[in-house]
């Protein structure tokens, strides 16, 4: 990670273009900043959208919306760091499993003015885990038939 002119950490550009990106959120004016990578995760060409809280929440998977909205409200109210794992739906309808890890963002006087951190798209890893779970369930189902047959003897 490098540090920008405002003293906020920005991740280096390692990994794939869309797997890691940074964001900043400023409490008082409800203002967001997204790196080009986070914009791309959400399906936008870099520089084509100004993120807002409504836009951020509009991309949350319906099953994760309440959890993320509640987390965000707590972050604003208590001015604290956070982390979450949830799904976002990009502009094409593709689902991305993401980890978001954030720390507090302070001004020169030390007052907490926002939060900043990273989005990590773990979708490729999630697909691998889902494949392993599916294979394990199939194996259990196959073995269950043999067990049921033996129980009937």
Key attributes of the depicted protein:
153 residues; alpha+beta; two-stranded antiparallel ribbon; 4 helices; 37% helix; globular; disordered N terminus
Describe this structure in words.
The chain is of the alpha+beta class and 153 residues long. The protein has four helices and seven strands, in the order ββββαααβββα. The chain has helices at residues 36-41, 53-58, 65-78, 123-152, and strands at residues 2-3, 9-10, 20-26, 31-34, 82-89, 95-106, 112-121. The strands form two sheets. It has a five-stranded antiparallel sheet with strand order 4-3-7-6-5, sandwiched between helices. The protein is globular, with a radius of gyration of 20 Å. Residues 1-17 have low confidence and may be disordered.
Main sheet specs: 5 strands, antiparallel
Secondary-structure class? alpha+beta
Total DSSP E strands:
7
N-to-C span:
64 Å
* Sequence of secondary-structure elements: EEEEHHHEEEH
How much helix, percentage-wise, in residues?
A: 25-40%
Poorly predicted runs: 1-17
Q: How confident overall, as mean pLDDT? A: 81
Give the neighbour order of strands across the main sheet.
4-3-7-6-5
- Backbone CA Rg: 20 Å
Percent strand equals 25-35%
The rough form would be described as globular
Number of helices: 4
Q: Secondary-structure map with pairings?
A:
Layout: E1 2-3, E2 9-10, E3 20-26, E4 31-34, H1 36-41, H2 53-58, H3 65-78, E5 82-89, E6 95-106, E7 112-121, H4 123-152
Antiparallel strand pairs: 1-2, 3-4, 3-7, 5-6, 6-7
Concise synopsis of the structure shown:
The chain is α+β, with helices and mostly antiparallel strands and 153 residues long. It contains four helices and seven strands.
């Amino acid at each position: 990670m490098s540090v920008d002119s405002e003293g906020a950490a920005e991740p280096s550009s390692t990994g794939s273009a869309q797997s890691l990106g940074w964001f900043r959120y400023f409490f008082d004016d409800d203002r967001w900043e997204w790196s080009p990578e986070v914009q791309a995760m959400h399906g936008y060409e870099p520089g084509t959208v100004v993120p807002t809280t409504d836009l951020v929440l509009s991309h949350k998977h319906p099953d994760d919306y309440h959890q993320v909205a509640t987390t965000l409200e707590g972050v604003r109210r208590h001015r604290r760091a956070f982390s979450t794992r949830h799904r976002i739906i990009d502009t094409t309808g593709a689902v991305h499993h993401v980890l978001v890890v954030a720390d507090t963002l302070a001004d020169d006087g030390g007052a907490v003015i926002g939060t900043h951190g990273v989005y990590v798209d773990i979708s490729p890893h999630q697909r691998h885990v889902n494949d392993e779970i599916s294979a394990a369930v199939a194996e259990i189902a196959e073995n269950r038939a043999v067990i049921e047959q033996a129980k009937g003897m």
